[in-house]
Amino acid sequence: MKVLMLNGSAHLKGCTYTALTEIGKVLNENGIDYEIFQLGSKPVMDCMGCGQCASGNGCAFSENQVNEFTAKAMEADGFVFGSPVYYAHPSGRILSFLDRAFYSAGKKAFMGKPGAAIASARRGGTTASFDVLNKYFSITSMPIVTSTYWNMVHGNTPEEVKQDLEGMQIMRGIGKSMAWMVKCIATGKSAGINCPEPETVVRTNFIR
Predict the structure, then answer these.
(1) pTM, whole model, 2 decimals?
(2) Mean pLDDT of the residues in the chain
(3) Which of 17, 42, 163, 204 is most buried, with most CB under 10 Å away?
(4) With 80 as the cut, is the pLDDT of residue 150 above it?
């Protein structure tokens, strides 16, 4: 079993990475592998709404590894999306990346798999960012992984994040909850209990 993490920061080993690795340590302790997928500092193209991904061949724009990520997502058992906070909001790069990933892979890669969102900030804007990232899970029938408080850490440097003892404890709680949920889902599948199939989508347009 494996959890795929997404570091939505341009800093490869900054504050968000520090929080993700704390989760990863607990996953390993519970027999779960993990991988941190780094967005890095290159520009990320936004979703253009071209609809070409509907053909099943992935996102038409291959820069910044969206298709590589969704291929890994197909094989993953759970997800953690981590972002720094900019102007009380997740990074623009992670939102553009996830828009394209979810449009192009959607339910095939993510449905029925547990997801956790974490936010890293010097001071404020974490709950708003946390809320935005959770919406990817709720629209794709993904169980949401929680901890003992809001999924966030505070600090301006990785060293300061490590001093946020409550935040780091919350990260470990995410790791425990994720490991438990992934194992429960695997046990259910082995007993013939699978994720329910969605109904055919019905779209209601309010402007006629």
Answers:
(1) 0.95
(2) 94
(3) 17
(4) yes
Q: Over pLDDT 90: what percentage of the chain?
A: 83
Distance between CA atoms of residues 21 and 16, nearest Å: 9
191-196 average pLDDT score? 93
Overall average pLDDT of the 24-52 stretch: 94
Our CA angle for 55, 60, 66, nearest 5°, is 110
Token pair in block for residue 199: 């109904």
Q: Would you say 80 and 153 are in contact if contact means Cβ atoms under 8 Å apart?
A: no
On whether the CB atoms of residues 144 and 103 are closer than 8 A, the answer is no
- Please give the structure tokens belonging to residue 142: 């993904």
